[in-house]
Design goal:
The structure holds 2 protein chains of 2 kinds. Chain A contains 8 helices and 5 strands. Chain A is of the alpha/beta class. The longest helix of chain A is centred in the middle third of the chain and has 25 residues, at about 65-90. The interface of A and B includes residues 46, 121, 125 and 127 of A.
Chain lengths: ~220, ~200
């Protein structure tokens, strides 16, 4: 592939402020004139949204972890093939709210299926589409939970799991970041939204490829 | 002939080979011998409907299909197949992981990965029967069934496709223990071969 865009993923536990930061980052990139695609997991395609409805349904609270991992990967496979790969091939910047690292943190560490197991399980879905940059928004798990319960989003199945689960997720994310420092940037997200947004922009802007062959100013 | 653990019998082969007919006959036979037996479908009818619909309307990718088959089968193994076998009941499975290697996986890398993932949770069959038939004969039987039931021909039901898949079966069966059945033989005589094999 000669023309390839730039692939950014935003990761973090519940209540880390990912959604708002994705919006702010996207608007910065648009202002700078970059062609961008903003997307999210699980979901991002109509098939993905339908799978998301299954995995987040309260009636499926007893769903086995392996089955859930395959469903999540099914949505991801569709997402990569239909949205991410075509956008990257067209030279666009892709900003994705959660990606494989979420599966490794939540299912590998949180639900104790093992980081390697989940990585291998996702290999076929990812099909080589590895992020160029992963921004990990890090807040201590207790604080993220508090933020989430104040927000008006309805509590879904994944919110109802126990506290030690969130601690494992948090620590799993930090381990992932440590194991791949060239790709990960950890952003401490306990600050004000504008301050976090500024930290993110500083990290992203310095790494972006030049637009249409022109150098950045 | 009965062990504590119920047996897992798998019927594989392209469509139009009479797998379902033989599953029903085997179930009746086992019941008559006092063995509880269940017929399970892979994919489950729920997933089959979803795949049919998403192929028509959503451009579902073949890798997405592989993952949905894995989710569906892992759930079925945990909810139905393993509990039944632990009670000493038998399972007759119409297709198993072999079908994903034949129908969805597109190269040796994908076949290897898919086989390894299914092997994480899917029990090995006690007997795997391959229903062998020339693709041309299978198509005649499928068309007759469609005329009879009014259902439309499926995505996999053209001569070119059946031939391609028949070849793919031969490739994956080279490394899989199985008993090959001549599916053109009369229904009763195929049934006898199956019964003799499972009675050992």
């Amino acid at each position: 592939m000669t023309k390839r865009g730039y692939f950014i993923t935003i990761e973090g536990g519940e209540g880390a402020g990912k959604s708002i930061q994705v919006e702010i980052l996207a608007s910065h990139l648009r202002e700078e004139g970059y062609p961008i695609v903003v997307t999210r997991e699980p979901g991002g395609t109509r098939i993905g949204e339908q799978i998301r409805a299954i995995t987040h349904n309260q009636e499926n609270v007893d769903m086995e972890a392996t089955t859930e991992a395959y469903l999540m990967a099914a949505a991801r496979a569709q997402h990569v093939a239909q949205i991410i790969e075509p956008a990257l091939a067209a030279g666009k910047i892709v900003v994705c709210d959660r990606y494989v690292d979420s599966s490794i943190a939540y299912q590998g560490f949180g639900r104790k299926l093992g980081a390697d197991t989940i990585t291998i399980l996702n290999n076929l879905a990812v099909n080589g589409a590895k992020p160029d940059l992963t921004l990990l928004l890090s807040v201590p798990p207790g604080i993220g939970q508090k933020r989430r319960s104040k927000s008006d989003k309805a509590k879904d199945r994944l919110d109802l799991q126990q506290q030690d689960f969130y601690v494992r997720v948090h620590e799993g994310y930090l381990l992932l970041a440590k194991s791949d420092p060239a790709r990960f940037v950890v952003i401490y997200a306990q600050k004000l939204i504008v301050q976090v947004a500024q930290s993110i922009w500083l990290e992203v802007f310095g790494r972006l490829p030049a637009k249409n062959g022109k150098t950045k100013t | 002939m009965i062990t504590n653990q119920g047996k897992l019998i798998v019927f594989e082969g392209i469509s139009g080979t009479g797998k379902e007919t033989q599953a029903k006959l085997l179930k009746e036979y086992l019941n008559s011998k006092g063995i509880i037996a269940h017929i399970v479908y892979h994919p489950t009818p729920d997933l089959k409907n979803i795949l049919t619909s998403w192929r028509q309307t959503r451009k579902i990718g073949h890798i997405t299909e592989i993952y949905l088959l894995l989710a569906d089968r892992s759930d079925r193994v945990r909810q139905v197949i393993n509990p039944a076998r632990e009670k000493g009941e038998w399972i007759i499975s119409l297709r198993n992981s072999l079908s994903a290697l034949v129908y969805q996986a597109q190269n040796s890398r994908e076949r290897l990965w898919t086989a390894k993932q299914f092997a994480r949770f899917e029990p090995l069959p006690d007997h795997l029967f391959f229903f062998d038939i020339p693709p041309r004969d299978a198509l005649v039987r499928i068309k007759a069934r469609c005329t009879h039931t009014g259902e439309p021909l499926g995505k996999f039901e053209t001569l070119a496709y059946l031939t391609q898949k028949s070849d793919a079966y031969r490739r994956v069966l080279k490394t899989t223990d199985h008993i090959s059945l001549d599916a053109n033989r009369p229904i009763r005589s195929i049934h006898e071969v199956i019964v003799t094999a499972v009675r050992d």
